[in-house]
Structure formats: structure tokens, C-alpha cells
Design goal:
CATH topology of one domain: Rossmann fold
CATH class of one domain: Alpha Beta
CATH superfamily of one domain: Alpha/Beta hydrolase fold, catalytic domain
Oligomer: single chain
Strand content: 25-35%
Helix content: 10-25%
Largest sheet: 8 strands, mixed
Number of strands: 45
Structural class: alpha+beta
Distance between the termini: 50 Å
Length: about 750
């Protein structure tokens, strides 16, 4: 079934719907909308698609498989789900190897059998493929082993240990005792076919994964120093035994940055040396620490690609390390006066980044925001020739190199900032061929043989569903899930208009407009502020904020006009848009909402005295800044789970935008609502979960005290004792939005 037919079908169902929205109904979220499919995966053999659906108001999930041969869907037991073999692009042979139920298992596709080898320890991890056939490396603690998948023979390469502390008289084991214990250990391991060399002591403690090149001749080791962090404690007031208990949560933003050092161990000569990166461009302009991302090894030469960034995230380098000589070749440098970011770039938005060998040991590919938008590039490491494979005012996402290295598969918002389409980029012609491009968004998974696609698709009024098709005939699609509830389908969902308006600085700002029917229009408007800082909501696909989407539908039924704004710092619009809040959150981003209000007043007959604003997390922060620094602009506001002081938020997110509190105190002062609370004139509703471990409850407690000291009136606070940052219970959601609804009715309909 084609997607176009599917959408038409949905429209036919909803056109004749007569249901009226109820607040307690829509706040059920998935319980009302339906439980949507998530995380589709291809089976290793390409014969099945796996996916799951999370239960409403629960951490549990139901697991499914879809059989392509007969079109049957099967519910899987937890054990069946855990024992599945799945395909992950880019992992190659590692798709065939896993650790499962205290065994190392090898799915020998040629022999059509699974070989199992008992493990001698439970903490085995970090599997890495070697050039030698049927050979992998794995890590146990900080020890490295080479493992033969044919005969189950393991050989220990090295055991990295922190140098032992000086012995204290009367407390340390004698040398004889230590030798005795080691002999017992060796006896226990005799039956596991393990060859143990002499333990090597390294003068520092290695953190994280050890990386071994495909020849098992070289090891990259990372030493990391984190600043001293003091975790905060979040009290729980609702407990089974009626006692208050606390849980440790993240630390607040720090003044010190983490630092790393990278070492190269040549196993052939047993030599260890620290790699010298002092020659990197702009590194020595100011003293800064480095952060090293995982290396990508060449299969034919002792070379390793590495993406490196400065700890302040203002510089990024791509280097080639000659493992045999320890020489560093800088291939690419990007500097940003704000901070490095964008899709496909390491460390950004929890992504690993796009980086790899296109032609082994000769040409690499990567993503960069060099042009102002994140695009795909190649670079010849010999000639230093650089070429842009994509270009334009759009962003590239989810890049995958084809098995034959002749093309890339990728997603972009090229057609419109608010869409996600799937393309094939031919490396000979550099033409982008659209494969899936209906208005909406696609999340695509390619099968191992690159012949089949599994994908999630949604529109602004149709939630995510799962489909499959062949790459050869992408229009011939089969819909695997029908997840929405009957009651959801009975309602006539109004498609919001995605538009843009010109902000006061001349930049086009995108937004979603929910316009009421003329006969019920009341002249009042609500501005919605999405959260997360770097996120997009003015788009043509199903909103992450599904309850808010439905709440806005309820508001337009009652005559409100609603505008959902992708303010400055939102995703999808390039580097300049992303970094416009540098050193001043609540500046240019807030001004976009002041401009949005004027846009509504000028173009949609909205009463300037009856415009409210609300949002959660970053959206709550903007709401506070709007009421505190632009008094009289918004008639009222509701701030949910709001940051009130950026010195109390986390390090990784905050220091990118505001630097550290010690280095840039003015940035923190001008960005933190608590310093502007005296400006409050208009009604304010504050809502917060008391066990929020992201934006911690302490934030609003401090603001509460400040408002009391200032003698402010017409503000209220609602607390939710069992809720974290993202609410779980329908009763809490319903109470929260009932209060928001009453706030708007009271102050916008007067």
C-alpha cells in the first residue's frame, strides 16, 4: 500500500468524525493516541523486522517481529527478543558476534550455525574485528584478548593496570602470597584455552574502551581527568515507608573542563608513548584540553582517523595518526566562535558523528558545518583535495556508506526545513536521488543486503507507523502497524499550517499555526515554546509534544489562535540559527516570540492585550524570561519544569552556550531568570515535578523565595511530588494542563 493511499484513508475516517476533545482524555497521551512502533531493526538474515511498543504509563514494552515471507506479525517473549540477531550498518562482522547468557556466540552464516564458547568472566565487552579471518579482540576489565572464533582459543595481549600503591607494613600481601593466588587463578583458567602473559603495569589508570588496530599490533589508550564534581541530592517525599529518602543526581555546571591524554602502545616493541597534538591549528593560542573520539582504523595500513575537539568545544580537528611512527597529520580544522555542533558531528546531540574511510588509507568522508549547514564531504589524505558531496541551505542526517562504497544513503530536510526525506547520493554523478519523499518525515533502516527498507513515517496529523518496501520499488509499500486507537481516529484533526514570518532582525522564523474557525475565533492567542534548546517542532510530521499538539487542537475548538515557534537555537536551520543564543539565552530567542506576537496581531486580528505564552524545560525558561524582562508583552504565562539559574544546570549543555561561570559570569547573569524576577507584572503559573533530576526542583524553590522577598502578586506554584522532568502519570498531566487552561481562560478571555 502506498503512503498516499494510507493518508487518504485516514482523512476519510476523520472527515466524518464528530468527537469532541476532552482534557482528561488527551492527557492520556499514548493511552488515547495509541502506542506507536519504535526502534525498527532488521534481522541479520533480512527475513524479519523487529520493533517494540512501550506500554502507556509504564516502563514495560511489547516486542514484535514481522515475517517478510508470509506477512505475519508475532509477539515475542522477552527471551526471544533478547536472543534475536540483528543487523547494524557499519559493524560488518561484528553483527555476527555477541555475548549472550555467559557465552561468546558466533553466527557463522556460511556454515548456517551458531557457535557458542563459554566465558571465563562476566565483564567481557568491547568486541573488535581483526584482519585475520575469524579473529576478534575483546576486553575484560582493562585486559585485552585475541579470540579465535573457529576453535575458541583466547590469547591475552596485555593487562593494563594502575601502578600498585606502595606497600604498608603489616597490611600488604607478601610476594609469596600474591604468587600463590596467581597460580590458583591460572589453574582455574586452564580449561578455557587462555594463554596469560606477564602482567604489564601502566603508570596511570586507563578509562573506557581500549582500541586495537586490525593487526593487533597497536593499542590506543585514553587517560581522562574529570573535574571534582559534587552530585546534588534529590529528596523523595512520597515513599512506601513514609520516610523521606534522597537519590544522587547530576552535578551542576563546573568551572573546570574535563581533559584527556592519548597514548599509543606498540605491542611488537612493547613501547608506550603519549601522542603529541601540540601542532594542531589554534591549539596553543590559549591553553585548552582535548577530547578524543573513537578512532577509525585503516584495514590495509597502520593508520587511524580520529575526530578531536577542544574541551571548550570551539575547535574541532580531524587527524590521521600513523601508528608505526606516531606522527600526526591534521586533515581538517573547524573553529566556531560559539561552539561546534550540528547533525552528524561528533559529540553533538548524543551523536557519534559521521567519519570513515571511503577509499581505504586514501580518501575519508565526514560531516562539517563549514558552509553554515551540516553537509557531507570527502578528503584525499594524500593530495589534501576536499570535495563537498552535498550543499545548500539544508542539513544532512544519518549518513550510511553503501557496501560497495559507490554511494551514500542519507536523510535531509532539503525539500522543506520541516520535512525529512531519504536519498541516495551517487558518488560518480553526485546526484541526490529521492527514494522516500512524501511530505512528512521518514526514519529509515536499510537491510544488510541493501535491498529492503524498513521505515517509520508520520505527518503532522498522523502518528508514526511502520512500513517496509524494496529499494528498487520504494512506492510499493506495505504498512506493518496500525497503531492509533479508534477514539483517536474519530476526531477531525486540523492540520496546522507551517509558515514563516520575518523577525525584527530580518531572519525568517518558522512556526506552526493552529487557526480556529471564523465563527468561534475569540481574538486571543497562545504562543507555545518547545523545550530542549536544540529541537524542532514547526514541521510536517508527528510532534514529539503529542499532548501539546492535542491541547492546541482543544484550544482552537474554543476560539484561541495558537502559534508554535521554532525560535532561534532550534534544529533544522543551520549554524547561525543554532548559535544565535551564544552568551545570552533569553535574548534573540525570546525576541522571536515578541516578534511572533506582533506577527499575529498584524496578520490574524489578534488582540495585543490577550496573548499568553507557555512551555516546558527550555520553554519554561523562555516563559519566565518573557514575563520578567518584557513586562506587559504577554498577558500571562505558564512555566513548566523551568531553568531559573543556569549555574544550576548541567555542564555539557550549558558551557557550550554560556562558557563556564568563572570565565563568563556576565553570560550567566544575563541569561538567568532569577536575576530579573523584579520585572514580573503579569500573572505567572509555575509547575514543577519535585523529583526532577534534570531541571532540579531546587531551581524553582529558589525562585519561589525570590518572588516572596520581592512581594510579587498574581503568581502561583503547583508541585508534583512523584514526577520527574518528563511526567509519567496521567493524573499529573491532567492537573497540570487544567491549571494552564484555567490560566488562559481567566486572563485571555476577559
Amino acid at each position: 500500500m502506498k503512503i498516499t493511499l494510507f493518508i487518504s484513508f485516514v482523512c476519510c475516517m476523520t472527515v466524518y468524525g464528530t468527537a469532541q476533545l476532552q482534557l482528561d482524555q488527551i492527557m492520556k497521551g499514548p493511552g488515547f493516541v495509541g502506542v506507536l512502533p519504535e526502534s525498527p531493526e532488521w534481522a541479520l538474515d533480512g527475513k524479519q523486522i523487529y520493533y517494540w511498543k512501550k506500554h502507556p504509563d509504564s516502563l514495560r514494552a511489547t516486542y514484535y517481529s514481522y515475517q517478510l515471507s508470509n506477512g505475519q506479525t508475532k509477539i515475542l517473549s522477552s527471551k526471544e527478543w533478547q536472543s534475536r540477531w540483528t543487523w547494524t550498518p557499519g559493524q560488518g562482522v561484528l553483527n555476527q558476534v555477541r555475548i549472550f547468557e555467559n557465552e561468546l556466540q558466533f553466527n557463522d552464516l556460511a556454515a548456517q550455525q551458531i557457535k557458542s564458547f563459554p566465558l571465563f568472566a562476566n565483564d567481557i565487552w568491547n568486541l573488535q574485528v581483526q584482519n585475520k579471518a575469524h579473529t576478534i579482540v575483546f576486553q575484560q576489565g582493562q585486559s585485552l584478548f585475541v579470540f579465535d572464533l573457529q576453535n575458541g582459543m583466547a590469547k591475552q595481549l596485555m593487562n593494563y593496570q594502575k601502578a600498585p600503591a606502595p606497600k604498608e607494613k603489616g597490611t600488604a600481601f607478601s610476594e609469596a602470597e600474591l604468587a600463590f593466588f596467581e597460580s590458583i587463578r591460572k589453574q582455574e583458567l586452564q580449561n578455557t584455552k587462555i594463554d596469560l602473559p606477564v602482567v604489564k603495569f601502566i603508570a596511570f589508570e586507563q578509562q573506557g574502551a581500549l582500541q586495537v588496530d586490525p593487526t593487533a599490533h597497536f593499542v590506543l589508550l585514553k587517560q581522562e581527568q574529570q573535574p571534582d564534581e559534587k552530585p546534588t541530592e534529590v529528596p523523595h517525599y512520597i515513599a512506601a515507608d513514609a520516610h523521606v529518602f534522597t537519590e544522587k543526581s547530576r552535578a551542576k555546571v563546573q568551572n573546570e573542563e574535563p581533559s584527556q591524554r592519548l597514548f599509543l602502545h606498540d605491542l611488537r616493541s612493547d613501547s608506550l608513548k603519549e601522542l603529541d597534538f601540540s601542532g594542531l591549528t589554534q591549539l596553543n593560542d590559549v591553553e585548552r584540553a582535548l577530547i578524543f573520539h573513537p578512532a577509525v582504523f585503516s584495514k590495509t595500513k597502520p593508520l587511524a582517523l580520529m575526530d578531536i575537539r577542544s574541551a571548550d568545544n570551539k575547535d574541532r580537528w580531524i587527524v590521521c595518526i600513523d601508528l608505526a611512527t606516531s606522527q600526526i597529520q591534521e586533515l581538517e580544522h573547524q573553529h566556531d566562535s560559539a561552539w561546534i555542533g550540528g547533525p552528524g558531528i561528533s559529540s553533538w546531540n548524543f551523536e557519534t558523528g559521521t567519519l570513515g574511510w571511503l577509499k581505504d588509507a586514501q580518501v575519508i568522508y565526514f560531516q562539517s558545518e563549514q558552509s553554515g549547514y551540516s553537509h557531507l564531504y570527502t578528503l584525499d589524505v594524500v593530495t589534501r583535495t576536499k570535495m563537498a558531496l552535498t550543499s545548500g541551505n539544508y542539513e544532512v542526517h544519518e549518513v550510511l556508506l553503501s557496501k560497495d562504497s559507490t554511494a551514500f544513503y542519507l536523510s535531509t530536510n532539503m525539500q522543506h526545513p520541516g520535512t525529512r526525506s531519504f536519498y541516495k547520493c551517487d558518488l560518480k554523478t553526485l546526484q541526490l536521488k529521492p527514494i522516500l519523499s512524501e511530505q512528512g518525515a521518514y526514519e529509515v533502516k536499510l537491510s544488510a543486503d541493501e535491498k529492503q527498507l524498513a521505515f517509520r513515517f508520520s505527518t503532522s496529523t498522523q502518528p508514526w507507523e511502520l512500513f517496509t518496501c524494496s529499494l528498487k520499488n520504494p512506492k510499493d509499500q506495505v504498512q506493518l502497524t496500525h497503531s492509533t486507537t479508534e477514539v483517536f481516529r474519530t476526531y477531525l484533526w486540523q492540520k496546522p499550517e507551517v509558515l514563516s514570518f520575518k523577525a525584527s532582525d530580518g531572519v525568517a522564523v518558522y512556526a506552526r499555526l493552529y487557526a480556529p474557525k471564523a465563527k468561534v475565533k475569540n481574538g486571543a492567542a497562545v504562543l507555545f515554546v518547545h523545550g530542549a534548546g536544540y529541537l524542532q517542532n514547526a514541521h510536517h510530521y508527528w510532534s514529539y509534544y503529542q499532548r501539546e499538539f492535542m491541547f492546541h487542537q482543544l484550544l482552537i475548538e474554543q476560539g484561541y489562535t495558537v502559534l508554535d515557534v521554532d525560535y532561534r537555537a532550534s534544529e533544522g536551520y543551520g549554524r547561525d540559527y543554532r548559535t544565535a543564543i551564544y552568551r545570552h539565552m533569553g535574548g534573540r530567542d525570546l525576541q522571536d516570540f515578541v516578534d511572533a506576537k506582533q506577527f499575529l496581531v498584524s496578520n490574524y486580528a489578534i488582540d495585543a492585550s490577550r496573548v499568553g505564552i507557555y512551555g516546558g524545560s527550555y520553554g519554561g525558561f523562555i516563559t519566565l524570561m518573557g514575563l520578567f524582562t518584557e513586562p506587559g508583552t504577554f498577558a500571562c504565562g505558564a512555566a513548566l519544569r523551568s531553568v531559573t539559574d543556569w549555574t544550576h544546570y548541567n555542564h555539557e549543555y550549558t558551557t557550550n552556550i554560556l562558557n563556564t561561570p568563572a570565565a563568563d559570569p556576565e553570560a550567566y547573569r544575563q541569561s538567568s531568570p532569577i536575576y530579573f524576577a523584579e520585572g514580573l507584572q503579569d500573572p505567572l503559573l509555575i509547575l514543577h515535578g519535585m523529583i526532577d533530576d534534570n531541571v532540579q526542583f531546587q531551581d524553582v524553590v529558589r525562585l519561589n523565595q525570590r518572588l516572596i522577598e520581592l512581594g510579587k502578586k498574581d503568581w502561583w506554584m503547583a508541585l508534583y511530588p512523584v514526577e520527574r522532568h518528563s511526567f509519567q502519570y496521567t493524573s499529573s498531566w491532567t492537573d497540570e494542563y487544567r491549571r494552564i487552561h484555567e490560566l488562559f481562560d481567566t486572563y485571555l478571555l476577559k
